[in-house]
Design brief:
The chain is mainly beta. Helices cover 3% and strands 63% of the residues. The protein is built from three helices and 22 strands. It has a 20-stranded antiparallel β-sheet that branches. Strand 16 and strand 17 form a beta hairpin.
């Protein structure tokens, strides 16, 4: 679940001179979070990705802990699984007012996305399963560099700026899960997500923003300014659960549902802004601002319902619909101010609508004497939350793999795109938006004991 939009501050300096040194804090304006992947809560695994993420009512491998833990009861053997991801994002910026901003910005991330150990057993004449899972849920790596120019005629001034923004980070959870087959046709499951960076990974994100500016009067350089903004959010910790059910109504139809509970995450926040300005012929002046505080991030409730239709032993079609209550996504800073993390504005002044994901997937199995080769495809609508209304993102996916003895290999490709997106624009410039294109390659390996 980004969050795939998490609160950061971006500064956009529109004037230069000694006043900037004296009022660095005043020149900082809150802006939307810059995230890499979708902020909506989703699961992992190449099989699910290949089916467009329509996996709530399928959920028959160890990644079920991230989609619908009740589906874990379908595992018949102990298994260990891995999922690796290769994610790239391209932002094609365009601006009617600032044509120099136009251009392509790229981001690339690759890492271990999922790991799981699952062990099924029988107790009180009921099939049960326990599993231990690691999942990397949100990506924050972004690199954006651009030039900006503003001009005025009275007085005749030109402001040139070079903006260099770099961000990296991720949010991961350790997730033990348990599922029980209540009846032969109905199962319940729960995944407990422990968000912490006290294990083998860090939980948080950090950004560095450097703005270099120059002011020209009548074509001559009159002043320069450099602003460095170092922003750190770390120690993201909290606890929530995924609670799911799976109901095999008959051999053709299966219905599944999942609720991902809201929670409050604790974080530490450090930020330092240093601005140095110099008038030509004068001495440089430096101003600084520093913040050290504990903050709380309220993560929203999300829930989904899925249907899987098994037409034959070879063909399955699935459909999911999912809702996330972004109106309950809030950040409380060290001074007790409650802000909308998507806009940086007070939460009561900036309501955000819920988003609805719609996903459709299909899988066809070629059953051969010594192996099974699947073909998968999917379509999805995966909007991102924004201040006025959700930003539209659409996509499709393809997947395949093979089974060889106790080994299952799956791979998938996902394409996701949003046109004329304003929510992910680094600097809030009038008439500026971006066409966002995302490519995700995922491979999964499962070994049955």
């Amino acid at each position: 679940m980004p969050v795939k939009k998490i609160f950061i501050y971006i500064c956009f300096l529109t004037g230069f001179g000694i006043a900037l040194c004296q009022g660095a804090a005043a020149q900082q304006t809150p802006q939307k979070a810059i995230s890499a992947s979708s902020p909506n809560p989703v699961g992992s695994g190449a099989r699910a990705v290949g089916m467009g993420g329509a996996f709530i009512a399928v959920a028959d491998d160890a990644t079920a802990a991230s989609w619908n833990p009740a589906g874990l009861t379908q595992l018949m053997q102990p298994e260990v699984s891995f999922a690796f991801s290769h994610f790239s994002r391209r932002d094609d910026f365009s601006s009617r007012s600032y044509p120099e901003v136009s251009g392509m910005q790229k981001t690339l991330v690759k890492d271990l996305n999922y790991f799981s150990i699952a062990f099924p057993f029988e107790f009180l004449e009921r099939n049960m399963i326990v599993s231990l899972n690691y999942q990397r849920l949100y990506e924050f790596d972004r690199d954006i560099r651009t030039d900006l120019t503003e001009r005025s005629t009275d007085p005749p001034l030109q402001y040139d700026q070079k903006v260099d923004f770099r961000q990296k980070g991720k949010l991961s959870a350790l997730s033990p899960a348990f599922a029980v087959e209540v009846t032969p046709d109905f199962a319940l499951g729960v995944t407990c997500n422990i968000w912490t960076d006290n294990l083998f990974w860090s939980n948080g994100w950090e950004s560095d923003l450097v703005i270099k500016g120059a002011t020209y009067r009548d074509g001559r350089l009159s002043s320069t300014v450099k602003s460095t903004d170092r922003d750190r959010y770390y120690g993201f910790s909290g606890f929530n659960m995924h609670i799911g059910f799976l109901w095999h109504i008959n051999s053709f139809l299966t219905v599944g549902g999942v609720v991902k509970t809201p929670f409050t995450a604790d974080m530490e926040h450090e930020r330092e802004v240093v601005t140095t300005s110099r008038m030509i012929g004068g001495l440089p002046a430096t101003g600084s601002m520093r913040i050290d505080e504990d903050v709380e991030l309220e993560m929203p409730l999300s829930y989904g319902l899925g249907v899987a239709m098994r037409f034959t032993d070879r063909l399955t079609i699935s459909f999911d619909i999912y809702r996330t209550e972004w109106s309950h996504f809030r950040l409380e800073d060290g001074s007790g101010n409650r802000l909308n993390p998507l806009t940086g504005k007070p939460s009561h002044e900036s309501p955000t609508r819920a988003t609805h994901q719609v996903r459709l997937g299909a899988e066809y199995l070629f059953i051969l004497p010594k192996t099974i080769i699947p073909l998968r495809c999917g379509l999805f609508y995966d909007p991102e939350p924004s201040e006025k209304s959700p930003e539209d993102f659409w996509g499709f996916s393809l997947g395949t793999g093979f089974t060889a003895g106790n080994l299952v290999f799956d791979c998938a490709y996902q394409y996701r795109r949003g046109n004329d997106v304003q929510g992910d624009v680094l600097v809030n410039l009038p008439g500026t938006d971006a066409d966002v294109t995302q490519h995700l390659f995922m491979t999964s390996l499962i070994y049955y004991f």
